[in-house]
């Protein structure tokens, strides 16, 4: 007898969710926060920069919570605060992330590597742990993790960053499968290069932030797939399948020099 496939729910109602986005004081998180709120959702933003949290709350009416996802105690405190103020919370987007160049010939890179892992990978895991019991108790809820096109083809200059994003991709797949048949949908947003301050404002030829965020909202609204893939990321996402991995890998390495 063939094993029965458990149903995997992938819908997020962007017109009526209560969503927490740690990592929305700038860039992609902020652009999505604005669009989700405009679509009708209640949005709580998080990050370390309190002055930005205050000004964004005043300007847009977001809920805010200070959070450092590299610190376990900060995640626990932020989760308690969000859930106390927003008991109907039914979505989180684990957006917080940092990206750094590393010279692997220099032992100095290790501090950066550990910080990147702690923020991008351990932070994602801890955030999910902190919110999962609550999300499982909701009739329908969503976790959106944030990987990257670089999870699929690495950028030579940013080894640990690429590795954490590949880790987020893999972790998300297991999470989705473990939660199949539950009330929690697990989505993965894998952005291509997008023009933000992620690398301290360095221009790495990213697509315009507004165009990216609009395309993501369209994909979320259509509820099509558990991976949220804008057109620009498709060559990276499917490079291995398409036999173009080595060619794209080398071209990206050459472009960065
Ligand atoms: N831009 C791209 O090309 C691109 C491509 C693929 C994936 N991504 C991913 O998209 C996400 C957002 O990046 P972005 O491009 O929008 O860059 P960004 O503008 O620098 O945003 C990064 C966000 O993460 C937050 N953050 C960083 N460290 C944190 C920590 N320890 N605790 C809590 N929040 C923290 C920052 O807030 P505070 O500084 O206020 O804490 C900020 O809100 C990241 O996960 C990134 O890896 C970006």
Task: Note the main attributes of this structure.
binds NADP nicotinamide-adenine-dinucleotide phosphate; 257 residues; 9 helices; alpha/beta
Explain what the structure shows.
- It is a single chain.
- The protein is of the alpha/beta class.
- It contains 9 helices and 7 strands.
- The protein has a 7-stranded parallel sheet, with helices on both faces.
- Helix 1 crosses helix 6 and helix 3 (72-85) packs parallel to helix 4 (109-136).
- The chain is globular, with a radius of gyration of 18 Å.
- Residues 22-29, 47-49, 52, 67-70, 95-99, 119, 146, 148, 191, 193-194, 196-198, 206 line the site of NADP nicotinamide-adenine-dinucleotide phosphate.
- NADP nicotinamide-adenine-dinucleotide phosphate binds next to helix 1.
Structure at a glance:
The chain has 257 residues and is an alpha/beta fold.
Could you outline the blueprint of secondary structure elements for this entry?
Elements: E1 18-22, H1 27-39, E2 42-47, H2 50-60, E3 63-66, H3 72-85, E4 91-94, H4 109-136, E5 141-146, H5 159-178, E6 184-189, H6 209-222, E7 227-228, H7 234-237, H8 239-242, H9 245-255
Parallel strand pairs: 1-2, 1-4, 2-3, 4-5, 5-6, 6-7
Helix pairs in contact: 1-6, 3-4, 4-5
The structure holds NADP nicotinamide-adenine-dinucleotide phosphate.
NADP nicotinamide-adenine-dinucleotide phosphate (NAP) is lined by residues 22-29, 47-49, 52, 67-70, 95-99, 119, 146, 148, 191, 193-194, 196-198, 206.
């Amino acid at each position: 007898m063939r094993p029965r496939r458990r149903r995997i729910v992938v819908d997020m109602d962007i017109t009526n969710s209560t969503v927490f986005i740690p990592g929305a004081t700038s860039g992609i998180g902020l652009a999505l926060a604005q669009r989700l709120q405009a679509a009708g959702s209640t949005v709580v933003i998080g990050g370390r920069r309190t002055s930005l949290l205050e000004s964004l709350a005043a300007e847009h009416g977001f809920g805010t919570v200070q959070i450092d996802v590299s610190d376990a105690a900060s995640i626990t405190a932020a989760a308690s605060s969000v859930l106390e103020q927003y008991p109907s919370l039914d979505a989180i987007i684990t957006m917080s992330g940092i990206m750094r160049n590393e010279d692997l010939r220099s032992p100095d890179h290790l501090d950066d590597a550990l910080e990147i892992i702690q923020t991008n990978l351990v932070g994602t895991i801890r955030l999910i742990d902190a919110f999962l019991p609550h999300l499982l108790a909701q009739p329908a809820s969503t976790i959106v993790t944030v990987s990257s096109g670089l999870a699929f083809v690495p950028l030579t200059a940013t080894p640990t960053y690429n590795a954490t994003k590949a880790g987020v991709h893999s972790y998300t797949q297991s999470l989705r499968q473990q939660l199949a048949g539950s009330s929690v949908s697990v989505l993965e947003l894998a952005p291509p290069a997008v023009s933000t301050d992620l690398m301290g404002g360095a221009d790495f030829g990213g697509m315009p932030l507004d165009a990216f965020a609009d395309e993501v909202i369209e994909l979320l609204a259509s509820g099509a797939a558990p991976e949220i893939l804008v057109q620009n990321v498709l060559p990276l996402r499917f490079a291995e399948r398409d036999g173009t991995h080595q060619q794209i890998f080398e071209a990206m390495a050459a472009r960065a020099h």
